[in-house]
Design a protein that fits this description.
The chain is of the alpha+beta class and 338 residues long. The protein folds into 2 domains: 157 residues, Trna Endonuclease, Chain: A, domain 1, CATH 3.40.1350.10; 146 residues, Yope Regulator, Chain: A (2-Layer Sandwich). It is built from 10 helices and 12 strands. It comes from Salinibacter ruber. GO terms for molecular function: nucleic acid binding.
């Protein structure tokens, strides 16, 4: 007879002793794909502990397809009225249209409350209730599992219909194939970089271990380029300047000359490297491109992740207006002398 193990449910607190310090970073920085698979929404992390008035929302994401805010509130114990109130307060303050409440156990009253909210709100507002569980076979690593206890009306049909309605062009299919096979390449080569769900677009995002930034691999067919970048999206300008203080050391560690792109009129700053690549979506070019992108992503992660974790945006301050004015006057005088 086959020798089978016994599946055992274990206490979530055995792995995540502290919700804010342990569970929220685990979910936000490395495991959003588990949540994506559960609710059928493609997510991009925007922030953790996002300020909303005097309070902080646990996780704020962007629905990358609909370009809408997704709020995630965590509670590693039985649901209570306090967290239900926080959920609605945060959603209102952030303008979130999808609200996800993750808990160890849902009370019937709170599950009914989410069902009622889904009934009375229009189709554009979505409430999910998810129970997080941990399961283990003997001494194996614990495996997380999300159970959906509440979801929007006809959500499964809406997700299925949306997938069927999406018609891909030949170019879209080529992009999707490229990222699908790149994700397989990363997995087969045991990369430390975890791929996200492939999409028919010219980029793929990757976590860098800090909610203020993410990594990207990109394919630019118009200019025939492939590239890797670090995008700073929260406290972008101070983080950019703090990192640039180590420009030479960073480029030496990455092994590439980088383009440091500060965009003062935008909220993002980009640190990037491009390679010229004739017809990057031609399949015969993919093995070499995959190796370039994989190696660069690993170098970017190894170089930037520890630095970001030790950076405090408050350690940088912009030049004073007086210094800026004085410098401008000196530059003007110099031009006049010429």
């Amino acid at each position: 007879m086959p020798d089978l193990g016994r599946l055992e449910k274990i206490d979530v607190r055995s792995e995540w002793a502290d919700e804010a310090r342990d569970f929220t970073p685990w979910l936000a920085e490395e495991n959003l794909d588990l949540l994506e698979d559960t609710i059928g929404i493609d997510l991009e992390l925007e922030a953790t502990e996002k300020p909303v008035g005097p309070f902080n929302a646990d996780i704020l994401c962007k629905d990358t397809v609909e370009d809408q805010w997704v709020l995630i509130e965590n509670q590693l114990k039985r649901t209570d009225h306090k967290h239900l109130g926080q959920l609605l307060t945060y959603a209102s303050g952030l303008g979130a249209v999808t609200i996800v409440w993750v808990s160890d156990r849902f009370n019937d009253q709170h599950r009914s409350a989410l069902d009622w909210l889904n009934d009375i709100t229009d189709e554009g507002i979505n409430f999910f209730g998810l129970e997080i569980e941990l399961w283990q076979i003997e001494d194996s690593p614990p495996a997380p599992k999300f159970n959906v206890v509440s979801k929007p009306n006809d959500w499964s049909n809406r997700v299925s219909d949306a997938a069927e309605d999406e018609e891909l062009t030949e170019f879209d299919e080529a992009q999707l194939d490229f990222w699908t096979e790149f994700a397989e390449y990363l997995n087969e080569n045991n990369s430390t970089i975890s791929p996200r769900k492939p999409q028919s677009q010219h980029w793929m995002y990757f976590a860098v271990g800090d909610s203020r930034a993410h990594l990207s691999a990109r394919v630019n067919t118009q200019d025939e380029l492939i590239g890797v970048d670090l995008a700073l999206k929260e406290k972008a300008e101070p983080l950019f300047h703090l990192l640039k203080r180590e420009k030479e050391q960073i480029e030496a560690e990455v092994g590439l000359e980088l383009n440091w792109n500060r965009q003062p009129d935008k909220t993002w700053c980009i640190i990037r490297h491009w390679w010229e690549q004739e017809n990057p979506l031609r399949r015969r070019n993919w093995p070499g491109e995959f190796q370039l992108l994989s190696d660069a992503l690993t170098s970017f992660y190894d170089t930037f992740s520890p630095r970001l974790s030790n950076l405090d945006a408050d350690d940088w301050s912009p030049p004073s207006s007086e210094n800026t004015r004085t410098n401008s006057e000196e530059e003007l005088a110099e031009r006049e002398r010429r």
